[in-house]
Amino acid sequence: MSSCNKLNKLTHEEEAIIIHKGTELPFTGEYDEHFSKGVYACKYCDAMLYLSKDKIKFNCGWPSFDDEIEGAVKKVLDTDGIRTEIVCANCGGHLGHVFTGEGNTLKDIRHCVNSTSLNFVPEDQVKTGQAIFAGGCFWGVEYYMQKKPGVLGTTVGYIGGHKDEPPYEDICSKTTGHVEAVKVVYDPVRISYKELVRLFFEIHDPTQIGGQGPDIGEQYSSIMFYLDDKQKATVENVIKILKEKGYSVVTKLKEAVTFWKAEDYHQDYYTKKKGTPYCHVYKKRFD
Ligand SMILES: [Zn+2]
Prior knowledge:
Layout: H1 12-18, E1 38-42, E2 48-51, E3 55-56, E4 64-65, E5 73-77, E6 84-88, E7 94-100, E8 109-113, E9 118-122, E10 129-135, H2 138-147, E11 151-159, H3 168-172, E12 179-186, H4 193-203, E13 211-212, E14 215-216, E15 222-226, H5 229-244, E16 252-255, E17 259-261, H6 269-273
Parallel strand pairs: 15-16
Antiparallel strand pairs: 1-2, 1-9, 3-4, 4-8, 5-6, 6-7, 7-8, 10-12, 10-15, 11-12, 11-17, 13-14
Helix pairs in contact: 4-5
The protein binds zinc ion.
């Protein structure tokens, strides 16, 4: 388990599959022929595992998917030494098996999952967490945030200035007062806001004044934009710990205002470029 130690109570039938790695009878499960918009979460720990858009019709008798939520499912060699077992990466609960080379979809992979291991959450009831970080060049902050297990998605953009939908040119000319920032959407079961805040302070230098790394200018300032009082208190606490460790933190705390998505060519910059950041490095600052 990572951030969440809370596990749901299971029935004997659920235990037989999720804990003791059993298999439900084909064509009997609740989600075999289930096609609604939403998320399939782990029955045991509630971590989000599969999106409905990745569910495929395969007629094997069990719910099938050709993709998983990044990092949510762990693949291990089955005790039979042949098949690949899939388990929830968060709690280790048994899900089923994964097969490749069947040629069923373009991705050519099929996660064959027991309905019993899943709990469907309709789209309008999915609970994700959100966080906004400004810590220098948004390409670099996004690069590290995307790699963190539990992060579902990131968007780079601009925040804190006085112009709507500012283009990148305005940010560079420093006329609008915006800073470069990253919006992170995460699964609160797999990672907490506090863990993300700690990561943020480990991937940039919160003691640098007037810029970040080689990037100089107010648009690269270190600012935490909190979305509610709980987030604000969490950040204050993490900064207090850093100050106790001797860091002269200059990071500002501001209430979140409108986040403007940056141009498409800025999104997923290092993933598309297959590069690594020049502007940020990971440095462990917490025990
Ligand atoms: Zn789980």
